[in-house]
Write a structure and sequence with these properties.
It contains 4 helices and 7 strands; from the N terminus they run ββαβββαβαβα. With about 180 residues, it is an alpha/beta fold.
């Protein structure tokens, strides 16, 4: 491991100078052993994943009839916009206007509370559906946040779709 080398100095006095040389090979081995130990004993974070249950394709597809349409009181629609803005409504195509399209944000439990209020006011609670419509300007974080709020409010019926032209028209009036 370590060795001492004695050297004689050339000249008048017989003084010996001792040089010490330390072999660092075992220290390198110990360093690699420590690195390996810490790598194996460290807990790596696992990614958080949310199940997104998509319906299976129905081989006996029937056209949509009026009895399959969800009434506006049995649903709430969230529109995800740019700059972390989120709007919601419970209106049909002919009833939606700037006054019906309300804005909220992701702070606190506001969205969960809005979903719960809409659920309590629903005519048929077993058909209550949350509809999420992200715009082209919406970001992925807001989409995940709205899905988290739906999971917090324990509503299992939700749908994700594109924003309709009549909703886009009112949305663009509000965001100008």
């Amino acid at each position: 491991m370590a060795e001492v080398i004695a050297q004689e100095k050339q000249g008048g006095s017989k003084q010996r100078k001792k040089l010490i040389r330390v072999d660092m090979t075992p220290m390198v081995d110990l360093g690699f052993l420590l690195i390996t130990f810490f790598m194996f004993t460290t807990n790596f974070t696992k990614p958080n994943v949310m199940d997104l249950g998509l319906p299976a394709k129905d081989p006996n597809h029937r056209p949509i009839t009026d009895d399959n349409v969800i009434d506006t009181k049995n649903q709430i629609t969230f529109i995800l916009g740019k700059d972390n803005r989120v709007f919601y409504h419970q209106s049909s195509a002919k009833d939606l206007n700037k006054n019906n399209l309300k804005e909220t944000d992701f702070s606190g439990i506001k969205i969960s509370k809005i979903i719960s209020e809409a659920y309590n006011n629903a005519l048929s609670k077993h058909n209550f559906t949350v509809i999420v419509k992200p715009t082209d300007e919406a970001n992925y974080k807001n989409f995940v946040d709205i899905l988290d709020n739906i999971a917090i409010s324990k509503k299992e019926r939700y749908g994700i779709t594109d924003i309709k032209p009549w909703e886009k028209k009112v949305y663009e009036e509000l965001t100008k």
